[in-house]
Backbone:
């Protein structure tokens, strides 16, 4: 029996939906699944975790002045992983995970594969994209402990009801000598749903013509309960912030539906969204790459079509 550790991401004490696909991927026959929950009310998330197969919930407590310190968070989880004899660790390849997982792997001197879209735990193999998504690599890792960063939404969540035990893990004496936490500042508060978590992403490129026109996409995304993304051309033009960039050097996303609006479909953009469930391209140029690399292409002016769709959604 292998003990598997899963680092749970929360948002204001609530569990993020993107955890459930990762837990589904980590489930293996005869394994004990340990969910590490940092500095939160574990009773509030217990029911959800049990419904996806978590058998042990590790309630990690940190000193109040250390809880935002990334080095302390990593050390606490690494210590817990050693304490419970865990052989494989799963976390999310989100902005938080990209900060936390390499620190944990370094603490454990364990191999790490980020942005995995699937993992074969029995053979310690992980699959991840290479060469701008043109090919995928299967990476074999060896070691007593191995760490995987899982691409959000890459795996369909499947329920598997169990009951769990809560284990208290005291990390309150862990302090960091290398880092001092100074301040926590809110990011863009207008963002209701992050790119990583969204089921629907509507992204704009140079075809949006200017930054103001992105409000057309925001209105439509709101109706679809989705998020707004962008190509690098839109970001580099200063129309939208970098946090919205999808692609090789931006966020890699796997929503159920991806709508590319006025985006030509460069390999660098495609690398970041090719694993989406359904890809719809809207472009005035039928020869644009994304019009071929998609499930449905719509030859239309995005500045006319999207407001029309939104109007129908509002009236519906
Ligand atoms: C190392 C490196 C990393 C990169 N990383 C990224 C990355 O992470 N993400 C990324 O996106 N790019 C990245 N790029 C940039 C990438 O190569 C492209 O330059 C960029 O993706 C182009 O953005 P775009 O499709 O919005 O613009 P364009 O290629 O200019 O395409 C605009 C499209 O809009 C269409 N259009 C115009 N008007 C309308 C309209 N009214 N209605 C509908 N369609 C319209 C046009 O027909 C055209 O197809 C990277 C490049 C490099 C070299």
Residues:
């Amino acid at each position: 029996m292998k003990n598997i550790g899963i680092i749970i991401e929360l948002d204001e004490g609530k569990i993020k939906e993107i955890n459930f696909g990762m837990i589904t991927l980590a489930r293996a026959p005869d394994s004990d699944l340990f969910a590490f929950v940092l500095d939160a009310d574990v009773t509030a998330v217990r029911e959800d975790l049990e419904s996806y197969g978590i058998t042990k919930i590790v309630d990690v407590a940190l000193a109040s002045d250390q809880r935002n310190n990334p080095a302390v968070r990593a050390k606490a989880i690494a210590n817990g992983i050693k304490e419970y004899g865990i052989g494989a660790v799963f976390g999310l390849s989100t902005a938080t995970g990209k900060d936390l997982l390499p620190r944990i792997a370094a603490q454990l001197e364990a191999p790490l594969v980020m942005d995995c879209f699937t993992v074969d735990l029995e053979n310690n193999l992980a699959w991840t994209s290479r060469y701008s998504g043109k090919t995928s690599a299967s990476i074999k890792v060896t070691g007593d402990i191995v760490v995987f960063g899982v691409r959000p939404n890459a795996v369909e969540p499947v329920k598997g009801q169990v009951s769990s035990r809560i284990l208290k893990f005291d990390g309150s004496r862990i302090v960091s000598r290398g880092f001092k936490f100074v301040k926590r500042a809110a990011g863009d508060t207008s963002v209701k749903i992050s790119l990583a978590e969204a089921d629907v992403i509507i992204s704009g490129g140079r075809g949006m013509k200017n930054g103001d026109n992105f409000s057309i996409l925001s209105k439509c995304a709101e109706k679809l309960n989705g998020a707004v993304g962008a190509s690098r051309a839109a970001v580099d033009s200063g129309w939208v912030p970098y946090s919205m960039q999808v692609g090789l050097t931006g966020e890699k996303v796997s929503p159920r539906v991806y709508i590319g609006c006025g985006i030509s479909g460069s390999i660098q953009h495609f690398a970041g969204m090719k694993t989406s469930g359904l890809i719809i391209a809207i472009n005035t140029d039928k020869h644009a790459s994304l019009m071929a690399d998609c499930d449905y292409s719509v030859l239309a002016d995005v500045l006319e079509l999207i407001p029309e769709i939104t109007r129908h959604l509002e009236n519906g």
The mean pLDDT is 93.
